[in-house]
Structure to design on (518 residues):
């Protein structure tokens, strides 16, 4: 049974910036002096990225995440991916996952497209016999042609997104988690991506997609969640939530 | 799913995928020497040049027989290099693998094994000068040499444990990699790589209380056709087990915050 369940999940995010905040010495000095020395080490700003989110996603659910920058969308995605574990509350994830959060991350830019398919196929445990099919499928979907034999560093950002999206969707995974970068593809690619995601979900899986586009939300998703300051503002169908989102100007994310 | 379940599942998954880690390590070596003509042979060339240079200077300095000293160095220096990689490179593991970790669902600890195997692959290349010296001096390998395999297994376990510890702390404290690199450069002086333990007439504690001495010697003995004494097996096995537990517990307790640190 594929499912993602958030129960009152709270995720806090320490923000490290200055070198002194990362220094082992200043942290140690802070410790031994009971916080009097190197006060900056003890006061790393903490952003409450998710403040008590509860949601149940079941097989066949395609969730659009809406919200302004800094509303907690990406943290929500990272929590769905199991990268971030909640500070309070629980998050249960059942199913294998594919994640497109950071375009080009995970690809080896010096390797060719073909070599990257091999590399990531192996990393995800795709068997040798199936890796050939994987390559054919990726070549077919991305339409990158001869570019697949060139190093990925020569690709445009749109081409990289196509390759990543193909890799993420060609390998049988239960849950697909996508950040808004999917918008970097051209219109032709968007149609293809939508068709592919629909076909993926005919096999009953879960999609979680962060987006700034009402069209994308309505085209690809069945449910929508509007986040602001790490809290749920509204949950409903993509059309309902998008219309409400357009009507209202939300407040900024909370910094604790 | 709590942090404990996530951490143990990660460890179990990484152990099941050790062949994957080995493939990734081999792939890293290929990647590093992409577009070179001699490829990984550069590793052996660098090592040979260094050993030859040291042998000339230090055999004169210590008044030792140049050939005996050359073999001692050709066996010991690669082992030291293997040990020092854990200090220099392991703290960067999770930071450098962030892209893979956030994009693909594979055990995080596979990245540790990948590096451990990578060090061992480089180590094998580093033994080429030793093989050449042995061939020139017509030294026949004995059965004792096979003991290098269990010795390396102990080093692998200790190194992976130490690696988990350093990789977690290295993500949180970015100074650690620099501190560990300095420490490795410093520790070589206290470890009998260029000198012999029995040559030290004072301050024997320098090596006696130095865990690296035991690991270095454990691997060097078989390379010099000798069986390591039993206490070396016991001490290194105990340290390896302790380091592995320490490393995994560090990973386990930090797993919830670890991604924020990357």
């Amino acid at each position: 049974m594929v499912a993602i369940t958030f129960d009152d999940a709270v995720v806090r995010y320490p923000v490290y910036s200055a070198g002194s905040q990362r220094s082992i010495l200043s942290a140690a000095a802070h410790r031994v002096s009971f916080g009097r020395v190197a006060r900056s080490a003890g006061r790393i700003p903490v952003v409450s990225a998710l403040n008590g989110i509860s949601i149940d996603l079941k097989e066949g659910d395609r969730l659009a995440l809406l919200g302004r920058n800094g509303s907690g969308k990406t943290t929500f995605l990272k929590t769905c991916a199991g990268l971030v574990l909640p500070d309070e509350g629980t998050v249960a994830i059942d199913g294998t996952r594919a994640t497109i959060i950071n375009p080009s991350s995970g690809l080896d830019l010096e390797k060719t497209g073909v070599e990257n398919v091999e590399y990531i196929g192996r990393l995800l445990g795709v068997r040798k016999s199936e890796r050939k099919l994987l390559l054919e499928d990726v070549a077919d979907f991305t339409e990158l042609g001869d570019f697949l034999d060139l190093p990925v560093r020569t690709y445009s950002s749109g081409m990289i997104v196509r390759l990543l999206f193909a890799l993420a969707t060609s390998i049988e995974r239960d849950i697909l988690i996508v950040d808004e970068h999917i918008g970097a593809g051209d219109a032709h690619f968007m149609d293809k991506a939508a068709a592919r995601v629909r076909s993926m979900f005919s096999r009953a899986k879960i999609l979680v997609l962060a987006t700034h586009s009402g069209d994308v939300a309505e085209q690809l998703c069945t449910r929508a969640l509007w986040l602001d300051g790490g809290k749920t503002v509204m949950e409903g169908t993509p059309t309902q939530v998008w219309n409400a989102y357009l009507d209202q100007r939300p407040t900024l994310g909370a910094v604790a | 799913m709590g942090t404990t379940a996530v951490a143990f599942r990660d460890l179990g998954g990484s152990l099941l995928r050790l062949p994957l880690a080995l493939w990734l390590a081999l792939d890293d070596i290929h990647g590093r020497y992409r577009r070179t003509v001699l490829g990984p042979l550069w590793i052996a060339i660098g090592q040979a040049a260094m050993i030859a240079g040291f042998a000339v200077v230090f055999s004169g300095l210590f008044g030792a027989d140049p050939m005996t000293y050359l073999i001692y160095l050709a066996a010991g220096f690669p082992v030291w290099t293997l040990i020092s990689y854990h200090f220099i490179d392991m703290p960067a593991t999770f930071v450098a693998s962030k892209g893979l970790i956030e994009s693909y669902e594979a055990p995080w600890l596979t990245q540790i094994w990948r590096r451990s195997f990578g060090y061992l692959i480089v180590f094998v290349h580093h033994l080429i000068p030793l093989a050449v010296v042995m061939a020139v001096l017509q030294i026949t390998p004995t059965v004792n040499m096979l003991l290098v395999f269990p010795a390396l297994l102990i080093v692998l376990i200790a190194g992976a444990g130490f690696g988990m510890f350093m990789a977690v702390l290295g993500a949180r404290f970015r100074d650690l990699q620099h501190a560990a690199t300095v420490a490795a450069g410093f520790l070589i002086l206290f470890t009998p790589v260029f000198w012999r333990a029995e040559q030290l007439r004072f301050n024997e504690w320098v090596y006696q209380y130095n865990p690296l001495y035991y690991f270095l010697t454990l691997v060097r003995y078989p390379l010099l056709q000798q069986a390591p004494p039993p206490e070396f097996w016991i001490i290194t096995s105990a340290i390896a087990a302790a380091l592995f537990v320490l490393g995994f517990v560090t990973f386990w307790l930090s797993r919830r915050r670890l991604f924020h640190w990357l």
